[in-house]
Every structure is written in C-alpha cells, then in structure tokens.
Write a structure and sequence with these properties.
Order of helices and strands: HEEEEEEEEHEEEEHE
Strand order of the largest sheet: 3-6-5-4-13-8-9-10-12
CATH class: Mainly Beta
Number of strands: 13
Strand content: 25-35%
Largest sheet: 9 strands, mixed
Length: about 210
C-alpha cells in the first residue's frame, strides 16, 4: 500500500472517531460492542453488505415479533415507547409488529407526533452547522455504506411541515439498541429498519411517547 493510500485510510478512520464522539442528533453513544455475525449481504438487492447481528447475544424480546397491541390509531401508524425501547408498527385488528430500538439519552429525548415526509435507502450523512462549529475538522459528508451513522435506511420526521431533525434510522453501532444512546433519533438494527422501511408509507404518523 502506498503512503498516500495509507494516510487516506488513517484520515478516514480518524474522521469517523470524531463523528462518533460529538455527533449531536443521531449517533452519540457508548458501550462495548456485542459480537456480530460476519459481514455478508442481507439480500441481493442491497447496495452494501449488511452486518448481521448475533441475535443470541440480545434479549429475546429484541426479536421482531407480531404482538397484541390494541390501539385507536389507524394501521400504518408508528408508535415509539421510549420507556421500554420498543417501536410498534400498527397493523390493525389489535396487532402490531414490534421492534427493539435505541432512544434519546437523558436530557436529549424527544416526544410528540410527527409524520414521515422523506424516506431514504442507504442515506449519506451530513453534519449540521452547529456540529461544524464545534468541530471544524469534521467531514462535510459521510457517504452511504455499512459505517454510515444512519445505517441502511432513514425515515425523516416532520412536524407542521418542518424537519424536526429527528429520524428513525439504522445504525453502525448495533450494541446501543435497547439503551438511551442517541440525542433524540430512534435507532434500529439495520436488518430491522430495512423491514420497517418496506412496510411504512410516506406521510405515516409517528408518535413518540
């Protein structure tokens, strides 16, 4: 490997460390990594490999499951219960599809109602102006891929026609699922957010409790 190529890889790795340490909205987290399965394609249609997690290393209720969930909300609504780190996709007839999530850490949680007005597969990540003012050396963009903080999918939450800056998204830090780890965004395992993304529609209502 040439010195230039080696230096480029070191700079990229350093940038990722900076982003992980100070990113405000969606990737602030801590903890040690749970073992994951080898990197392998989740499906032939995916643009990038999906790092499959070792489900055996997580609580049984982290599995995606259809559960009883009586609700007055219409089918297609997403409900996030921050106190138990679960997301429910309402299916109707008293049923919902349950997913484990990571939620906002103390002092950064967000609650309220919003709608999904944008959806993105393998999104790029861009720092906010506030983040850049805090760390001018932060990269202007992290391209899509397995190491992107937003993971394989992102659902962008809007309220009163304005971007809340909160998202439901995948993560490059799966060991944070089930914990208060972010600054308000809702994180999911990549394979789970791919599943949810295929089910939820634009303009779907999202309730964060």
């Amino acid at each position: 490997m040439s010195n230039n190529a080696r230096n480029g890889r070191l700079l990229t790795a350093g940038a990722m460390v900076v982003v992980s340490l100070i990113l405000g909205g969606c990737v602030t987290g801590s903890g040690s990594a749970a073992p994951m399965a080898e990197v392998s394609p989740r499906a032939t249609k995916e643009r990038f490999p999906v790092r499959l997690i070792n489900r055996a290393r997580f609580p049984a209720d982290f599995a995606v499951t259809e559960v009883d969930y009586p609700s007055q909300e219409p089918a297609g609504t997403v409900v996030v219960q921050t106190w138990n780190s679960k997301l429910y996709f309402i299916m109707g007839k008293g049923k919902a599809r349950r997913y484990a999530v990571a939620v906002g850490k103390a002092g950064h949680g967000w609650k309220g109602s919003a709608v999904i007005q944008r959806r993105s597969e393998w999104p790029a990540w861009h720092p906010t102006d506030e983040m850049l003012s805090t760390a001018p050396s932060m990269p202007q963009k992290i391209p899509p891929g397995p190491d992107n903080p937003l993971g394989a999918r992102a659902l962008y939450l809007y309220a009163d026609g304005k971007d809340t800056l909160y998202r439901i998204h995948g993560t490059s830090e799966p060991w944070t699922i089930g914990t208060p780890a972010s600054s308000g965004c809702i994180r999911m395992f990549n394979e789970d957010v791919i599943d949810l993304y295929a089910r939820v529609d634009l303009n779907a209502k999202v309730i964060v409790q």
